[in-house]
Amino acid sequence: MTYTKRPDGREMHELRPIRAEVGIIPNADGSALFASGKTVAIAAVYGPKILHPASMRNPEKGIIRCEYNMLPFSVSERARPGPSRRSKEISKVTSNALSSVVDLSRFPNSVVDVQIMILQADAGTRCAGINAASMALAHAGIVMNELVTSVSIGKIDDKIVADITKEEEDWEEGEGPTDIPFTMTSRKNDIVHLQLDGNIPTSRFKESIDASVKACNKILDYQIRALKGEKINENEGKK
Amino acid sequence: MELPNINKKKIIKLLSEGKRIDSRNPSDYREISIETDVSNKAEGSARVRIGKTEVIVGVKLDVVTPYADHPDEGTLMVGMEFSPICGERYEVGPPKINAIELSRVVDRGVRESKFIDFKKLCIKEEEKVWSIMIDVYCINDDGNVIDASSLGVVAALQLSKLPIYDEENDQVKYGELSETPIPLTKNIPLAMTFYKVGNNILFDPTRDEEDASEARITMAITSPDKDKIINSMQKGGITPISIEEMNTIIEEAEKIYDKLFPEVEKMVENLK
Q1: How far is CA B14 from CA A9, A59, B18, B22, in A?
Q2: What pLDDT is attached to residue B1?
Q3: For FRET with A159, which of A5, B22, B47, B107 sits at 20 to 30 Å CA-CA?
Q4: Distance from B32 to chain A by nearest Cα, in Å?
């Protein structure tokens, strides 16, 4: 069976319905929700605050400290609470992606804590988490040179598609699934996070970059609208 | 640990003229050697040296209950440790986030390439499968430990034999190796990491060059037929990589693969 049509009826480059909103956690200095289809992420930003232990302080620049947390009830089979090797790695790549656009020189000796929670998972959770965190940082008024926007590009069988679901991630027919989460800066579309699992010929890698640029630019529009105060919910009225 | 700026400036200045501190070209790699028999208690092992960088890799096998979602497949685990033995910057304690990230990058290169035939590691569906546990220890870190580790893991897998398994008593008879190698496919992965230093892209950095770099891209490539297939990729570091730089990296990777892969495969073949 070849892959000619997406299981949920989307076009190859079409995103899932998006929910985006800022200011969802009153206690936080900045917060946001970003959902793509059935994947739901929230993020909160606290800081800048003085960094402990003192040995980690840098008088020239601050740091971004991320924690990505996939809640036990966000997946079919309960996930063990607490950090795993997977979540530690995602926290690190997320923190790298965000640090690339934040003006770290503005808060020497300090830390900005970014907490990310995945409430419901249907693939692309790290991307949704990064999108929410990028919005939350801007919402907190942390000085950023650009926003970052993340999307999971897939090669399912031999088709390049945007924003893949779990069902697509598990596609085993033909050439099988390839998952390529990209995070790009909003102005220059520089790559600040990139991972890949699966198989894609070197000659076709450019197509995945092009798909990522297109998808990120679309998502950026939602992030900006939400940051201007709009509560976006394309799922409204749907189940 | 931050490198004194004077070193970094010198590295970047030289690179802008297309030169490196050890007079290599940006895409040249150091001399590579692979040995085996690090420990005769391991089911397979390898020692890889790239220049002054050295890692040792040991493979241990055990019979375990399979994961519920893959009841007929063996399992793989790659662990990595930087102990204080390999350089003064490292401290005692459990693996830190860098080691965890690197071990996952190495793991995914092997796993996603489908190099291991996991179905053939099944002894009895839903009950017993072989579990492959690979531990990587850095012995001397002079840069590019990622590629050295990947190379070591791939070599050690090819040099491993299954131990004798006594099915009746459900016992693995360690010390008694069978003649059966670990079931592998022709998708032999080669991991290559490219480092961005200033506006230059370089391959196989020394420790000083790695410290001067701000971002890296690791990719594992297989080429069972004509095409070169990227099976895993990971960006590390904070500094962005532009789309043009990314395209350059892919082109460089294709070129280096053609030269490096036959070399290392020959080395492993000679050890079998």
Answers
A1: 54, 29, 7, 10
A2: 47
A3: B107
A4: 25
DSSP string, A84-98: -HHHHHHHHHHHHHH
**Average pLDDT for B223-227:** 92
**Is residue A239 over pLDDT 70?**
no
pLDDT value of position A238? 57
User: With an 8 Å Cβ cutoff, are B100 and A89 in contact?
Assistant: yes
Confidence of residue A1 (pLDDT cuts 50, 70, 90): low
Rounded to an integer, what distance in angstroms lies between the CA atom of residue A159 and that of residue A188?
26
Q: Which residue has the higher pLDDT, B167 or A223?
A: A223
For A104-129, what is the mean pLDDT? Answer: 96
A11-62 pLDDT, tens digit per residue, is 999 999 999 999 999 999 999 999 999 999 999 999 999 999 999 999 999 9
Q: Looking at chain A, which residue has its C-alpha nearest residue B222?
A: A199
CB B68 within 8 A of CB B129: no
Residue A141 has pLDDT above 70, yes or no: yes
Instruction: Say if the Cβ atoms of B229 and A202 lie within 8 Å.
Output: yes
DSSP category for residue B40? T
Query: Tokens at residue A85, please?
Result: 């090797």
Q: Which CATH architecture best describes the domain A18-228?
A: 2-Layer Sandwich (3.30)
Contact B112 A199 (CB under 8 A): yes
Residue with tokens 């939350």: A136
Closest CA to A68 of A109, A124, A27: A124
For residue B5, pLDDT over 90 is answered with no
CB within 8 A of B101, min separation 6: which ones? A88, A89, A92, A93, B234, B236
Tokens describing residue B86: 């390999």
Domains of chain B: 5-271 (3.30.230.70)
Helix axes A205-227, A125-139, angle to 10 degrees: 40
Q: Which residues of A touch B91 (CB under 8 A)?
A: none
**Domain map (residue ranges) of chain A:** 18-228
Work out the minimum CA distance from B229 to partner chain A, whole angstroms. Answer: 4
Shortest Cα distance from B112 to chain A (angstroms)? Answer: 5
Interface contact B101, partner A, CB < 8 A: yes
- Contact state of A195 with B233 under an 8 Å Cβ cutoff: yes
Nearest CA in chain A to B219: A196
> Residues of chain B with pLDDT > 90: what percent?
82
